[in-house]
Amino acid sequence: MTQHLPAILAHINAEAPAAEARLCDWLRIPSISAQPAHAGDCRRAAEWMRDQLAAIGFTAGLRPTADHPVVVGHHPGPGPGAPHLLFYGHYDVQPADPLALWTSPPFEPAIVQGPHGPRVVARGAVDDKGQTMMWLEALRAWHAIAGGPPCRVTVLVEGEEEVGSPSLDAFLAANRAELAADVAVISDTGMWDIDTPAITTRLRGMVYAQIDLRAARRDLHSGLYGGSALNPINLLTRILGELQDDDGRVRIPGFYEGIAEIGPQQAAEWAALGFDEGAYLGDIGLSVPSGERDRAALERLWARPTADLNGIWGGYTGEGSKTVIAAEAHAKLSCRLVPGQDPARVAEGIRRFVAERLPADASAEVTILTTTPGIEVPAESRWVRAARVALAEEYGRPAVLIGSGGSIPVVESMRRLLGLNSLLVGFGLADDQVHSPNEKFELRCFHQGTRSHARMLAAFAG
Amino acid sequence: MTQHLPAILAHINAEAPAAEARLCDWLRIPSISAQPAHAGDCRRAAEWMRDQLAAIGFTAGLRPTADHPVVVGHHPGPGPGAPHLLFYGHYDVQPADPLALWTSPPFEPAIVQGPHGPRVVARGAVDDKGQTMMWLEALRAWHAIAGGPPCRVTVLVEGEEEVGSPSLDAFLAANRAELAADVAVISDTGMWDIDTPAITTRLRGMVYAQIDLRAARRDLHSGLYGGSALNPINLLTRILGELQDDDGRVRIPGFYEGIAEIGPQQAAEWAALGFDEGAYLGDIGLSVPSGERDRAALERLWARPTADLNGIWGGYTGEGSKTVIAAEAHAKLSCRLVPGQDPARVAEGIRRFVAERLPADASAEVTILTTTPGIEVPAESRWVRAARVALAEEYGRPAVLIGSGGSIPVVESMRRLLGLNSLLVGFGLADDQVHSPNEKFELRCFHQGTRSHARMLAAFAG
């Protein structure tokens, strides 16, 4: 099928402005899965994707879940016997707050000049609408020039990724036969830098917990009770202030059990990448690495677990002063996990960590909101080999094999429920401000990513 | 003047239902000084008091400040040479939140039966509208029966007590001559129990601080940065978790400097009160005392300083999970102070405590919102002697001399700016839920307090 490739790449180049306009159309739909008020927008974003697939020869439809629908599409490609790919993406986005920090409205995509040329600024620009659009545009070009993709293709685009994909496992399990494929292809990760493509082979997992402490049965006057009554906010800081020791090691019982240390070859490969942690931190206004003191930077980010407080609240938080001893105090804690850690054990460790520090009169409720294990995908396979060829042709240099500090739970779900390994080829950059105000996607990444997907389709078929 | 007293007490008894109705009228005005939307209500509460004073022979008016007006009234009493009393109260109240925990709307006073008979439930019921109304009703009875009080009386009712009285010092300084008196009489403290009246001779002061920590220049994705970037919420818990050592001693540098230990006689008197800390804590659902391990209960509450976190916030605090490393984290900290501590030194100690624990890359802003020293007022004076006589007659048992863990900054201001000592005779109970939902005032306390004030007026004149 490689004979079509030059025309397909030329078509992608010619179509670039139209592809950008389509991406902006999708970005204008505020499909925030966490907020019930946006349920209708989530549905619109799903319908938009369904219609795009239908326009390029897919049989596509919306499939209901308990909350936001899943878009599923199928294309027979050249027919039975051809390699079968399952493309995964998500149409939902994170909440946009704090709104005041955006330089343009989050759901009015703005094309802005940056050091790498034009970029699109919007919530979802890269995570994951922009990344999903790349393979959609590659499939569109194959449709236009060759009448369809050179492989069998199944598409699965969900709308609950940003809230932990609560419906996905049940959906995969219930549709195992329909979703059968040879490999899953996912663009939700990053490049090494704008000139260097990357294939991600490690992802961290997560345990996300909410901790609710309670002491007295009502709020108290700090003058009348201060010196006698237990203060749950002081207690919360006392407990959570011990999460890390002075060397940055997490003190949750059993936290590091089962972790396989990375081997010397892996360490050497990552060292060869020449990661500049100073510059990485400098971009966000920091200079001194946090985390475990005795570990290399990329190991801390890709192969070591964390315990970060994502939120804390209690008592009076308004203007000025209120002299109250609150009855309750709360925190949200997420631990990023690495392969070998058992999420259930870590969850149990969090419960024990809190319980062991709880004095008489205080009660603690620990609610586990998410558990996903860290995961490693094969670094050697026909799919990885094909992707390396395609990426080297597009970028003129070899792709590097990297880890990611983030979590993509669907990778583990697809392995467990569909028996599928994933090929993780993404085109985001470290400064894309994912989950933050002014999220952006470089248009150069978008177009080269689209071309890379078009080339990978040929290489997979080849 | 004591010949009028039997008729005055009979009048107070006969007027009780009308006095309750008047108290409820005042309580219906939501005069929340902290909330700008209630500025008009604060003014209405002030006008209400002015009109009450005018109706019983006072020259009374509203005096502007930068925010809520002060009510000032004068009554010549029997004329020059008579003792001159300055009655102080405040018409403003705390915010009523959390509203959901009230059993009746906070500004619709409800008369409810309790173990001591009927009580009024409303925001401000005891703090300080109910307590202020007692001396107003006593003055009203003297007016009705004797044509006026037996002493010269100046009245000062402010509207910013619950926000730290920002305008009061300047007002006192500017009106020193007009506010001249022999002693200040204040009802904003408590009884020992419902049968035992009390005169308060010690009050704690306060330093109230807001602490704002900042790290990265924007919110970060906890997957992409966790293990490398400093988390300001983890840091906040690490710093504030060290506020107390394992024995409950506060670790702020220089915190205990200058405190005069209470003498053996004071300790013996307080021990003789037979305070049951177990019951005190049991009422609020607690069983184990907090605070300094080696100190007696009343000493911890009245003669030892505290460091209580009154509020904490940062990051994601909504439903579910958001995997963010926040850029900022915040807390509100109040230290109750005792005589001998220098509030400026404590404020400086808080700054040092935070600065000494601050790593590279984090910045901390410590804003001091309030500073008031702890204070002791004379336990021997003609005013205390007169009050003891009056209280013993009303209650049939002697009044006890106690401390209070709370702060009444005006006591220190009146001494410093007007050269006036205060006589602190209050009628609140420990379970009045001051500053909490379902604040209440026992009507028995209200009426016996009114009678006590009527008796004290006679005793002061005597």
What does this protein structure show overall?
The structure is a homodimer of 462-residue chains. Chain A has 462 residues and is of the alpha+beta class. The relative contact order of chain A is 0.19. Chain A contains 13 helices and 18 strands. Chain A folds into two domains: 2-203 and 374-461, Zn peptidases (Aminopeptidase, 3-Layer(aba) Sandwich), CATH 3.40.630.10; 205-294 and 301-372, Alpha-Beta Plaits (2-Layer Sandwich). The model of chain A has no long low-confidence stretch (mean pLDDT 96). The first copy, chain A, is globular, with a radius of gyration of 24 Å. In chain A, the strands form four sheets. In chain A, strands 1, 2, 3, 6, 7, 8, 15, 16 and 17 form a nine-stranded mixed beta sheet that branches. The longest helix of chain A is centred in the first third of the chain and has 23 residues, at 5-27. Helices cover 34% and strands 22% of the residues of chain A. Chain A has helices spanning 5-27, 39-55, 129-146, 168-174, 222-225, 232-240, 264-272, 277-282, 297-302, 343-356, 382-395, 409-418, 443-461; strands at residues 59-63, 70-75, 84-90, 110-114, 117-121, 152-158, 183-186, 198-203, 205-214, 220-221, 308-315, 324-325, 328-337, 363-372, 375-376, 400-404, 422-425, 440-442. Chains A and B meet through strand 9, strand 10, helix 5, helix 6 and helix 8 of A and strand 9, strand 10, helix 5, helix 6 and helix 8 of B.
